[in-house]
Amino acid sequence: MAQTEKIHLHSLLPKGIRVRKGKKSVSLIIQTRKQVTDAGVMKIIPDCKTVRLDLPEKYNSFQYEKAFLEALDEAKKEKVLALKHIATHGIETPKVKRQGAVATLKEVYDATFEKQWKGKAQERGVTILANDIFAFFPKSIDMHEIQTHENYDNFISFLKKRVKERKMNNLGTVTTNTINRRLGVIRCCIAHAIKYGKMNKDKVLNPDPQEISNYGWKNLPIGKVKDKHTLTIDEEHEVYAKAKELGDNEYADAFYWLIDTGMRYETEFRTFTIKDINWKKGTICFWREKTKEPSINLPLSKRAFEIAKRYKDVALTRQSQRMFEISKHRTEALFKKYKEICKIEDFTPYITRRTFCTRLGERGVIPKVLSKMAGHSCVETAQRYYIQPTAKGYERAIKIAELSDDEFDNYLHNQNTMIGHNSRNKD
Fold first, then answer.
1. How many CB atoms lie within 10 A of CB 301?
2. What is the rounded distance in angstroms from the CA atom of residue 294 to the CA atom of residue 273?
3. What domains lie within the chain, and their CATH numbers?
4. Measured CA distances, 61 to 20, 33, 124, 333 (Å)
5. How crowded is residue 46: how many other Cβ atoms within 10 Å of its Cβ?
6. Could you report the per-residue pLDDT of 28-54, keeping only the tens digit for each?
7. Minimal CA–CA distance to 305: which of 425, 386, 417, 420?
8. Tell me, what DSSP letter sits at residue 276?
9. Please, are residues 215 and 187 in contact by the beta-carbon 8 Å criterion?
10. Hey, which end of the chain has fewer CB within 10 Å, N or C?
11. What is the spatial distance between Cα 139 and Cα 134, in angstroms, rounded to a whole number?
12. Band of the pLDDT at 389, cuts 50, 70, 90?
């Protein structure tokens, strides 16, 4: 690694943190000194910790920079902990170990992950949650040290800010469910640490027997999930016609395609290709990045199949063989454009997926079939977040309620079983 690059990185070191290069490893040394008054006498209390750079053998400049920045982030958190430790214990600080027989949060998390989540469906999701946890807590903090109300409150505030500011968070919102999932990982770690003797159960945030299920790391109250607007047939055709009128022809077809397939616009819509379509059967099977598995052989509506046939030749000439070459940001910009033009509530790319699920739900598609068609790993997800109440749904419910038993039995007998073929007829 070039010396100039090292100098550039080392210039990022704040006061009290320095690099120590040994024969076999490189570390950051965190030295903290704080004045403490004892019986009118001013004393200097020191604290020293080490954070090693996780470097492979024969590392290159990129690997060094990545490891350096990760260690620096950890060292900064260690310095904050050291100041809190000295402030709490004063002149007794050198006698009170910050880390002893009690396991660190990272040690406990790794053990919990290995036993509870590795190789299972939750593995990827938990890894994402853990990244947020360790963005706040140092990996070397012990299980007793995290058990303070200050840590609990600050952790929640930190998460709210972190999630809101994420680039992928287009709406800039955060729900209590988002926070609670991360609190759940911490509770799992606490339970593991207590079970395997890695921490004292009396040291949890709230040892009250009534709080035994959450150890004081209790979930935030779940807020009411706001009902979201779904497209009516008239609104759907209005957007399509306006897009055609203004020359956004590819967007118009992509808009219909998203409604009729329920694809996630950030991933599935951007990665499926013309080769994913079975032209004889009129179905499509594509990769679902979120669930890490292929979709079912999803039947295409007549409208979607006609769109596919129109774009087939163009797609085959493209190296990517994608039907639509609209980027994620372009898609979002176009939805914003037609939201303003057509004045439709909640008109974001997600409205197409909500509309897809809601129409299937209103037509009596059973939850398990619906969840497979939408690509949900959990059956309840569609019902909680995607199937929305609509005025047309209320009208249909009353009409069904007014049927006699014989009429209702006849209605069930004659129901259309063409699951997945969205109706284009106006009711």
1. 21
2. 13
3. 1-98 (no CATH), 99-223 (1.10.150), 233-413 (1.10.443.10)
4. 17, 33, 29, 38
5. 12
6. 888 887 777 776 777 777 777 787 787
7. 420
8. G
9. yes
10. C
11. 6
12. low
Is the distance from CB of 187 to CB of 217 less than 8 angstroms?
A: yes
Q: Which residue from 19, 14, 20 is spatially nearest to 32, judged by alpha carbons?
A: 14
Q: How far apart are CA 315 and CA 272, in angstroms?
A: 11
Distance, CA of 30 to CA of 18 (rounded, Å): 7
Q: How many CA atoms lie within 13 A of 103 on its CB side?
A: 21
Distances (CA, A) of 360 to 269, 294, 374: 20, 21, 10
- How many angstroms separate the Cα of 216 from the Cα of each of 116, 298, 329, 391? 22, 46, 42, 43
d(CA 330, CA 244): 17
Closest C-alpha to 374, from 350, 349, 351, 357 = 357
Amino acid at 202: D
Distance (Å, whole) CA 32 – CA 140: 16
C-alpha to C-alpha distance for 242 and 238, rounded to whole angstroms: 6
Residue 128 CA, chain-centre distance (Å), reads 7
> What CA–CA distances, in Å, run from 413 to 365, 396, 397, 421, 427?
14, 17, 18, 19, 20
Unique residue bearing structure tokens 């200097």: 44
pLDDT of residue 241: 97
CA distance linking residue 15 with residue 110, whole number of Å: 32
Q: Tell me which amino acid residue 226 is.
A: K
Unique residue bearing structure tokens 């000194």: 33
Q: How far apart are alpha carbons 160 and 95 in whole angstroms?
A: 37
Residue in the structure block whose two tokens are 């396991």: 103
Q: If we measure between CA atoms, which residue out of 126, 222, 137 comes closest to residue 182?
A: 126
SS3 call for 23: coil
DSSP bridge pairs for 293 = 288
Q: What is the CA radius of gyration of the chain?
A: 28
Q: Is residue 162 within 8 Å of residue 178, measured between CB atoms?
A: no
pLDDT in tens, 1-11: 555 555 677 77
Tell me whether residue 41 is exposed, middle or buried, using C-beta atoms within 10 angstroms of its C-beta: 0 to 12, 13 to 18, 19 or more. Answer: exposed
Kindly state the tokens that stand for 212.
Answer: 């035994």
Strand ranges across the sheet with 283-284: 277-278, 283-284, 298-299
